[in-house]
Design brief:
Chain B: This is CoA transferase subunit A. The structure holds two protein chains of two kinds. Chain A is of the alpha/beta class. Chain A is built from five helices and 13 strands. In chain A, the strands form two sheets. Chain A has a ten-stranded mixed sheet with strand order 4-3-2-1-5-8-10-11-12-13, sandwiched between helices. In chain A, strands 7-6-9 form a three-stranded mixed sheet, with no helix packed on it. Chain B has one domain: Glutaconate Coenzyme A-transferase (3-Layer(aba) Sandwich), CATH 3.40.1080. Chain B is globular and about 55 Å long. The chains are: A alpha/beta, B alpha/beta. The interface between A and B is large, with 45 and 51 residues.
Chain lengths: ~220, ~230
């Protein structure tokens, strides 16, 4: 049987438009690499200065001088390029990255994202998250619906320091696919066997259920 | 023109209390040999500027673990639990910047300018009120350029004039830092005669480089790290 995370990742692959440029944040999004079909027409941007990075290279082709931002010894696709960190972030701030899939500690129904700091507990730094979140035209958050204690990570208002405001387009969790709209969070897909009431029960944010909701 | 020098002499130019930029994003592009010589020579009270803190036990983490670094200006240290412990126990002051802001601050200094305007993090807690500036009805954040006394860099290839070529993702902050420090010290495992590297392949022109250290061999730290290989 497929795990919840596995089905989340398989669902996330469908977000990628052919011919687009994509950035995958550390955590769940980088795991997505393993699920991408090898003939996918996409260029993956890595903040450390790679456009066209791909899955882990075969052993004999691995280079100690080539990693992605998550530290994996990646291969590159045909048509890839290397550049310095200023160029890499110029690409981000000029919105040349079409889609960023990113992890989150918390999100809220206004599309705000908190993923860089849990005061007093965990603050390893900002990395590239703030610029990616603020400047990528489409941000899709990949995360578990609830934390390890079972508390909702989808809130009415973020409580943690916010990485970027009103930046999220879509949230994909192990339970549902939701779009951030001016009206609020619209549930487009729900995991099989779960009712809208049950989903609202485990979600702090107020949910709006689309008329034509499919199963995840 | 010959910038090559011994590693001892190159690092001896650095006094205690210096502000030092260090190239590298993770391991690629990190000048491990120059860092080890700095560790051996004993300079203290250093301020380091580097994208990350390497991993525990290697690179600049060795300097941190020996209490030689007062202050680290960086973007993310999540891969180094030891550095996080030093930060949390207030033995190391850490200043975090968004990664592209750190790169741009260094690039700006390297271009001989003093600052730039941005909207990154404008409404977040990383922005102090005195950085805010309004111009023609729009709000911006002022970011100052970031310079250093020294830069320690790694190049895949160089010539003895100090022309540099980087490889793969080992480029990262190296060419930016080469332009933003008063004294630039570069290590390379492959040094060529002038003319052997093609002019249109040079990433950093030699005018920015002061000292070039040719490494007789690369240590373990430059190789593939097994714990990053997924099986």
């Amino acid at each position: 049987m497929m795990s919840d995370i596995e089905s989340l990742l398989k669902r996330a692959v469908k977000e990628i438009q052919p011919g687009s440029i994509l950035n995958l944040g550390i955590g769940l999004p980088t795991q997505l690499l393993n699920y991408l079909p090898d003939d996918l027409d996409v260029l993956i941007h890595s903040e450390n200065g790679v456009l066209g990075s791909w899955k882990q290279a075969p052993r004999e082709q691995m280079s100690a001088s080539l990693i992605d931002a998550a530290g994996a010894y990646v291969s590159t696709v045909e048509g890839s390029s290397f550049f310095d960190s200023a160029v890499s972030f110029a690409m981000i701030r000029r919105s040349k990255i079409d889609l960023t899939m990113i992890g989150a500690f918390e999100v809220d129904q206004q599309g705000n994202l908190a993923n860089w700091k849990i005061p007093g507990k965990f603050s390893p730094g900002i990395g590239g998250a703030m610029e990616l979140a603020q400047k990528t035209p489409r941000i899709v958050v990949l995360m578990t619906h609830c934390d390890k204690q079972g508390r909702s990570k989808i809130l009415q208002q973020c409580r943690l320091p916010v990485t970027a405001y009103h930046c999220i387009s879509r949230i994909i969790t192990d339970k549902a696919v939701m779009d951030v709209t001016p009206e609020g969070l619209i549930v487009r897909e729900i995991t099989e066997g779960m009712t809208p009431d049950q989903l609202q029960e485990i979600t702090e944010a107020r949910l709006i259920f689309a008329e034509e909701m499919c199963s995840l | 023109m010959n910038k090559t020098t011994s590693i001892e002499e190159a690092i001896a130019a650095i006094p205690s209390g210096a502000v030092i930029m260090v190239g590298g994003f993770g391991s690629p592009g990190t000048p491990f040999s120059l860092i080890d010589e700095l560790l051996r020579q004993g300079q203290r009270n250093l301020t380091l500027i580097k994208n990350d803190a390497n991993e525990a036990g290697i690179g600049i983490s060795k300097l941190i673990e020996q209490g030689r670094v007062d202050r680290l200006i960086t973007t993310h240290i999540g891969l180094n639990k030891t550095a996080i412990e030093w930060m949390n126990s207030q033995r190391l002051v850490v200043e975090f910047h968004p990664q592209g802001m750190l790169a741009e601050k260094i690039r700006t200094a390297g271009a001989g300018s003093y600052g730039f305007l941005t909207d990154i993090g404008l409404h977040s807690e990383i922005t102090r009120p005195e950085q805010l500036l309004e111009w023609q009805g729009k709000q911006y954040k002022m970011e100052m350029a970031l310079k250093a006394d020294f830069a320690l860099l790694h190049a895949a290839r160089a010539d003895r004039f100090g022309n540099l070529i980087y490889e793969g993702s080992a480029m990262n902050f190296n060419p930016l830092m080469a332009m933003a420090a008063d004294q630039v010290i570069v290590e390379t495992p492959a040094c060529f005669e002038p003319g052997e590297l093609l002019p249109n392949q040079i990433h950093t022109p030699c005018a920015f480089v002061d000292r070039l250290v040719v490494l007789p061999q690369l240590t373990q730290e430059y190789r593939i790290m097994e714990h990053h290989v997924r099986h």
